[in-house]
């Protein structure tokens, strides 16, 4: 198994095009793992809803909204 310095040296030895490909690959992996890509996450969620045939309607969302005007202040 290579240590970090060996990996860095190996990357430095790659042609520029392969380095750019590797960095783009790592950037995408980081986005996926940290959830930075909201829209991809939303699309994955929608696919699960669709594939599992999950159906929800207005009744499922009843009483979830807070209709208050904000924090009450006692004077």
Quickly count the helices. Answer: 3
Main sheet: strands, sense, barrel: none
Structural class: mainly alpha
User: Separation of termini?
Assistant: 67 Å
* Percent of residues in helices: 55-70%
Low-pLDDT runs of 5+ residues are none
Strand content: under 5%
Shape call: elongated
The run of helices and strands is: HHH
What's the count of strands? 0
Give average pLDDT, whole number.
86
Rg over C-alpha atoms, rounded to the nearest angstrom: 24 Å
Please provide a written account of the structure.
The protein has helices spanning about 5-10, 15-35, 40-50. With about 80 residues, the protein is an all-alpha fold. The chain is elongated and about 65 Å long. The N and C termini lie far apart (about 65 Å).
Short structural description:
With 75 residues, the protein is mostly helical.
Produce the secondary structure layout.
Elements: H1 4-12, H2 16-34, H3 38-51
Essential attributes:
elongated, mainly alpha, 75 residues
């Amino acid at each position: 198994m290579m240590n970090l310095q060996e990996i860095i040296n190996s990357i430095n030895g790659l042609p520029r095009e392969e380095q750019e490909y590797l960095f783009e690959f790592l950037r995408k992996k980081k986005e996926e793992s940290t959830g930075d890509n909201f829209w991809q996450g939303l699309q994955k969620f929608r696919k699960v809803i669709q594939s599992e045939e999950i159906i929800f309607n207005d009744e499922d969302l009843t009483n979830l909204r807070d209709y208050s005007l904000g924090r009450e202040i006692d004077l």
